[in-house]
Structure formats: C-alpha cells, structure tokens
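Re-running 50S ribosomal protein L27 to confirm reproducibility after the cluster update. Everything else is unchanged from the original entry.
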Amino acid sequence: MYPTVQFIHSYWAYLVLIVLFVAVINSIIGYASNKEYGATNFRIALFTLITTHIQLLIGIVLYFVSPYFSVLLEKGMGAVMPDPTLRLYIMEHPLMMIIAVVLITIGYSKHKSKLTSKPKFKTLAIFYTLGLLVMLSRIPWSAWF
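Result of re-run:
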C-alpha cells in the first residue's frame, strides 16, 4: 500500500504546484492590472483549494502507512530529531504542508467576503503566495529528482 500512496502523493504534488503557481500569477496580474474578478478567477482559486486539500488527505494517509512512522513509534521522538532525514519526513514536511494548506484555505475564505475585485485579488495573492513559499521550503527535493 505504501508504494502506491507514495506514487499518488508524489505525482499529485506536481499538479498542486502547477495549479497553485497559476493561481498566484493570476491573482497578482489581476491585482496589478485592476481586472474585474470573474467566474474564471473564482474557479482557479477554488480548483487550487480543492487540489491542495486532496493532497493533504493523501499525505495524511501516506504519513501513517510510511516506514518513517514505524520508526517514530519504535524509537520515539528522541531518535527522530537528530536525524535530518527522519526529521524532514516526520516533522518538518507534514507540519509545513499543513500550514501551507491552512494559509490557502484562509485566503480562499477571506477573499469571498470581499466586495470588490481589487481586495479579492490582493487577498488571494497574499495568502496563496505565502502558501506556495511555505510549500516550496519543505518539499523533499532530493526525492523528486
């Protein structure tokens, strides 16, 4: 089960990054050019939210079926923290990705309450960019390439 979930999680991550990058660029361009916020912009923001939440759910399943979780259960946190690889996969990556998804969710929720286009784009640009930066900071790049 672990290899299958890891495969899905790894390849879904490409989709998440692409969609999130598109949403960030779209919101920055919309804000800078004073465009009118329309249905396409709403769909981009919503699709970004949905893909990141699906990735989070896949990641939670992966966390509990991974061999790293077994190490945590057997050896405890004292053995995990000194090891950079274990710390990345057990603590840093999951925590930072949860923070990124929370930022994206907050941005999406806050933008809906704005009444005009410019504040909508600004809210999305700020929170989605922060979410993207947090994600990029803790992706295990060595496992990707």
